[in-house]
Structures are given as structure tokens and as C-alpha cells.
Amino acid sequence: MGKSTTGNLQMNCELCTPENELLLWENGLCRVILVEDAHYPGFCRVIWNQHVKEMTDLTEDERQDFMQVVFAVESVVREVMHPDKINLASLGNMTPHLHWHVIPRYISDMHYPNPVWSSPQRAGMPAAPPDWRVNLARQLGQIQPHRKALSCHENSGSGQE
Ligand SMILES: [Zn+2]
């Protein structure tokens, strides 16, 4: 275990062997998916493609590449969803495969001001902006990688050697 798992796919990991992911963007290193949650429109997840457990298992460059995508997604979610707050979260206790949650939060949502994984506070169902799905997909499609390592977006490979 430990670092030796870097680059391996684990069959029992739902992020290594995803089913029914709604993919919005990918670049060979990581991918952005839309989390289908009726209570949380615009909830996105940024997933490192390889089965890596901790941020410090990545190289410095990889960490920067990964976080630049997370920040780009945050910017798009803010612009499209107009939330009262963004929650960035990386837990991975249940699924120890690097991923970041980018969650638009509203003071009227089901759990505010607590984390979305806590006990519900109310029957919240935020009114999402019209056409948010189209706008989110379109703007995420325009994420520009800052680093050269990210330009493998245009390569045909899946990021594996
Ligand atoms: Zn995995």
C-alpha cells in the first residue's frame, strides 16, 4: 500500500471504476464531473485520475496542476451558480482516492450553514439559475490549463503510460 499504489487502478474503488459519471471536462490527469444531487445543483467534483490517497503523494507540479483545475472550477461555479458561499472539501475517508468537492452553498439550502454531509436543517431546495447546466458545461469546457503538463488534453491518450 502507500505510495506503491500510485498509478494503479483499484477495482473496488468507485473513482477508479466509475459508473454513470456525468463528465464535464478532463485533461488526462484529472476530470471534472457533475454530482447529480437535486438538493445541490452545480455540485462538481474534481477527481485525480490515478488512485492516489493524499495530496502529498503527488509531486509539487501535480499538486499545482490539480489545484489549478479545482480553482478554475470554483470560478466557473461562482459565475454560473451565484452561490452565497463555495465549499471546497477534500475528505476521502470513505473513498481514499484524491478528489475535491466544489459545492455552491446557499443560505436556504438543506444543510446551511453546516456541511452538506451533516444533518438536514430544513427542506431546502435552492432555485438554480436558468440554464445552469448548459452554462456550467460550456464554461467548464473553456478551462484553460495554465501549465504545460495540462495540455495533454489534446492528446489521445488516457493519461496512462
Ligand atoms: Zn481509486
TrEMBL record:
Residue span of motif Histidine triad motif: 97-101
Alphabetical list of InterPro entries matching this protein: AP-4-A_phosphorylase, HIT-like, HIT-like_sf
Signal sequence region: none
Domain HIT: 11-112
Gene Ontology terms for molecular function: catalytic activity
A Pfam family annotated for this UniProt entry: HIT
Gene3D superfamilies on file: HIT-like
Listed name of the protein: Histidine triad (HIT) protein (Modular protein)
Organism the protein comes from: Candidatus Nitrotoga fabula
